[in-house]
Design goal:
alpha+beta; 276 residues; 8 helices
């Protein structure tokens, strides 16, 4: 998930490797060192990661009794999540407070279009797959174009096949697995009017997320830091009523407190036994 930077301002990523397999005291020490060094920590974790990783993250956060660790596991495929993590690294170089930066993750997910070309959907359980598509998946040579985010879509590859794309200018990142096809780079990129295209190796979690290693994963995204910054700063900020940190949205990403209702409902019922 640690993609190469797009410019010299993009901050490097810190990869917490084998978090669920190393001794707990070692993991605690590593995370505490990061908090001491940076003040706040935004942990971006794939939903395809083993369950033990999430359990370990929550254990570390609890043992450290820290409200300076934000755990973020959006429902994005691995390549889309890697793109989001890099966008947050880009924004980390700007004058955004930790709470606003961490909250920006939920906002920016709406501007990422992520999917894959698959050689089989027999084990795909992340988006709805009809019985007909499952049956066609067993036909040799069948390929399926799948959009997982922002709106699920699945089509069998053939003449005229297309996926709903972004209505704004984006770049496209492509990660080729063991599926031999140039449909994404030669056809989909043109359909989506991609302004730029780069190829990388597939993330380690891709095969687990998509249910097959015969894939070509792709993600369309906003690469320009100035556009990302404008999107984030255009959203109204507020202070968390519990921990006091500045955030955008209705939930604090550090202490998980939700914003109180502006106008709480009034209970007009009389207490039991007092009615006339």
């Amino acid at each position: 998930m640690a993609l190469p930077p797009l410019d010299e301002r993009t901050l490097p990523a810190v990869v917490l490797r084998d978090l669920d397999r190393q001794p707990l005291d070692q993991a605690l020490s590593a995370v505490q060192t990061l908090i001491d060094q940076y003040g706040h920590l935004v942990v971006v974790c794939s939903q395809a990661a083993p369950p033990g990783v999430e359990w370990r993250l929550h254990t570390i956060r609890s043992l450290l009794e820290s409200d300076r660790i934000a755990l973020f596991r959006p429902d994005l495929p691995p390549l889309g999540l890697a793109v989001l993590a890099r966008q947050l690294r880009q924004l980390a170089s700007c004058d955004l407070s930790p709470g606003v930066l961490a909250s920006a993750g939920r906002l920016l997910t709406h501007y990422i279009h992520a999917g894959a070309l698959l050689g089989s959907v027999a084990r795909l359980d992340r988006i709805p797959v009809g019985l007909r598509s499952h049956a066609k998946s067993w036909v040799p040579g069948s390929q399926f174009a799948v959009l997982a985010h922002p709106e699920p879509q699945l089509v069998k590859l053939g003449p005229g096949a297309s996926l709903a794309g972004p209505e704004f200018g984006t770049w496209m990142l492509v990660a080729k697995g063991q599926l031999q096809s140039d449909w994404v780079t030669a056809t989909l990129a043109k359909q989506w009017s991609a302004q730029g295209l780069r190829e990388i190796a597939p993330p380690a979690e891709s095969a687990a997320w998509w249910g097959t290693n015969k894939l070509v994963e792709f993600a369309a995204f906003l690469p320009d830091l100035s556009v990302l910054y404008q999107l984030v700063t255009s959203v109204r900020q507020s202070s968390c009523h519990w921990c006091g940190i500045d955030v955008i949205g209705d939930r604090c990403v550090f202490c998980s407190a939700t914003a109180p209702l502006a106008n709480p409902p009034v209970n007009n019922e009389l207490p039991a036994g007092r009615g006339s």
